[in-house]
Design a protein that fits this description.
Elements: H1 9-26, H2 29-45, H3 49-65, H4 69-85, H5 89-106, H6 109-125, H7 129-143, H8 152-169, H9 173-189, H10 197-210, H11 215-228, H12 236-248, H13 252-267, H14 272-289, H15 292-341, H16 352-369, E1 373-380, H17 383-390, H18 392-409, E2 414-420, E3 423-429, H19 433-453, E4 461-468, H20 476-492, E5 498-501
Parallel strand pairs: 4-5
Antiparallel strand pairs: 1-3, 1-4, 2-3
Helix pairs in contact: 1-2, 2-3, 2-4, 3-4, 3-15, 4-5, 4-6, 5-6, 6-7, 6-8, 7-8, 8-9, 8-10, 9-10, 10-11, 10-12, 12-14, 13-14, 14-15, 17-18, 18-19
Length: 502
């Protein structure tokens, strides 16, 4: 499907629908996402915006559930392009920002490059040229980190073409010359890379601005590329650039031909925003040629396209609202699942997985601020005897009771965990030895009280603490080992003791 998605989208749609059936039978959410993505992408190429948004919306939800952030970012990029071409700048920005956010959170330079490139094109089309250039250069920076990606050269040349177009638009001739050299070098580096319509149009604009190339030859090549390109809507912004060039340079006969060809292509496609933009240039052409009857028909068409655009915006907003609602529910579900992963089911407090993450953060913070950071290890004295005499059910109740006591102890600077078996851990941020000993004494008394209330076997706890102002040589592993050593000192003294070492 990847090989034919641009060359034969109708074929890919057939394959993707069959693939969707198989993926659904296997209940594989990631594969379902791929099928929906290819369907959305190909429907976009064929001009069915409603189906494009519908399938892309579904793919985002499926990739989010399967945590395929690379493809989720790709879907947001596609939605951004759709919204941008529909003239819906607000939702296009939202989609690009979602793609950029995903890329930054998950370190995906390729998705980030695509998002910044698309964002740059949208800014350029709105004549926000400074911001367009800033985003295009950011895209270039990111894509250069992705040379191993199979699509590197395709995206790299696209980014370079955008940068060149922005320099030309702002009459920065010196940088335009350098950018054109970069673009040509990129094509030389990948000699089998096909020159697309985007290349030939931007080369024509370069010839027009600089006079360094044969402008007539560049125009001939651009028109040949236009004629040979089966899916002109994929290069729509460059088609518009070509039409504006023809208008600005009084090439009205050729402009009339392009208008006629685009009318044929867009007649069967659901691209109201494209039709409006083409119609606007066509009206200028007909006025210049004084074709009054055709001009009247074109004005009627323009009004019709405007109504179509309004209807399309309503459909788009409806799908976007559904997408946001679905993602909000999924985000909540994911947060619940993530919390379950780091929570001990028996005691209700966080587990060793969460301990590993937060302990490192707190130690780094204490080292930076030059304050105390303590790790405590505690366990239940003679816990094996409790299990042997009273059964594992009673042992579980004892662990649950310890968990309840530790939950009540937690605050913004005290964090409690079940470390494993009958061992628990406590992290203290910015507490002195005296403060910790006072808290630990109260903890011992509270455990006794709760065990009596719950009619559990009377027992005690042993506690070992390592409290230091961390230096660069200190690690969680070394501090944890010291806390463990302190715990065994407490147990060696008969249990029910508190040992603090520094």
């Amino acid at each position: 499907m990847e090989e034919n998605r641009f060359s034969d989208p109708s074929l890919v749609i057939k394959k993707a629908k069959s693939f969707l059936e198989l993926a659904t039978e296997k209940n594989d959410m990631n594969l379902i996402g791929y099928a929906d993505f290819y369907l959305g992408d190909c429907y976009y190429t064929l001009g069915n915006i409603t189906k494009c948004i519908e399938y892309t919306n579904s793919a985002i939800q499926e990739f989010t559930l399967s945590e395929n952030w690379y493809k989720a970012g790709g879907c947001y990029n596609l939605l951004g392009i759709v919204f941008s071409n529909q003239g819906d700048t607000s939702n296009a920005l939202t989609s690009y920002f979602e793609a950029i956010s995903l890329a930054e959170r998950h370190g995906d330079s390729f998705v980030g490059s695509l998002a910044y490139e698309n964002y740059a094109e949208m800014c350029e089309s709105c004549n926000i040229n400074d911001y367009a250039l800033e985003n295009a250069l950011k895209s270039k920076e990111l894509i250069l980190k992705c040379r191993d990606n199979s699509r590197f050269h395709v995206i790299y040349t696209l980014v370079l073409a955008t940068i060149l177009k922005i320099y030309l638009k702002t009459n920065d001739i010196d940088n335009s010359i350098l950018a054109y050299e970069d673009l040509m070098n990129a094509y030389d580096e990948k000699s089998d890379l096909e020159h697309g319509l985007d290349f030939y149009v931007v080369q024509l604009l370069y010839a027009n601005k600089t006079g360094l190339l044969d402008e007539e030859q560049c125009l001939k090549e651009a028109l040949e590329s236009f004629d040979n390109n089966e899916y002109k809507t994929d290069y729509f912004m460059y088609v518009l650039d070509l039409m504006r060039y023809l208008k600005d340079n009084n090439r009205y006969e050729t402009l009339g031909y392009i208008c006629s060809e685009m009318d044929k292509i867009l007649d069967e496609a659901n691209y109201p925003a494209y039709k409006l933009k083409i119609s606007d240039i066509k009206i200028d052409y007909l006025q210049h040629e004084n074709k009054k009857n055709e001009l009247f028909d074109a004005l009627i068409d323009y009004r019709k396209y405007f109504k179509m655009q309004e209807n399309q915006n309503s459909v788009t907003l409806n799908y976007l609202a559904q997408l946001r609602d679905s993602l909000a529910v999924q985000k909540n579900n994911i947060q619940v699942l993530q919390e379950k992963v780091v929570t001990d089911e028996l005691t209700g407090i966080h587990n060793r997985r969460r301990f590993a993450k937060l302990s490192k953060q707190l130690q780094d913070k204490a080292r930076q601020n030059h304050v105390h950071f303590a790790i405590e290890m505690l366990d239940i004295d003679k816990f094996k005897q409790i299990n042997d005499r009273n059964g594992h059910r009673t042992g579980d109740l004892c662990l649950n009771a310890i968990g309840q006591v530790l939950q009540s102890l937690q605050d913004d600077n005290i964090y409690c965990y079940r470390y494993g078996g009958d061992e628990f851990s406590i992290l203290f941020y910015n507490y002195t030895d005296e403060q910790i000993r006072e808290i630990c004494n109260k903890l011992s008394e509270r455990v006794k009280d709760v065990f009596i209330i719950k009619r559990l076997p009377l027992t005690t706890i042993s506690q070992g603490i390592c409290n230091i102002i961390p230096s660069m040589k200190d690690s969680i592993t070394s501090q944890l080992a010291s806390a463990d050593k302190a715990l065994y000192e407490s147990k060696g003294l008969g249990g029910n003791k508190i040992t603090i070492i520094n």
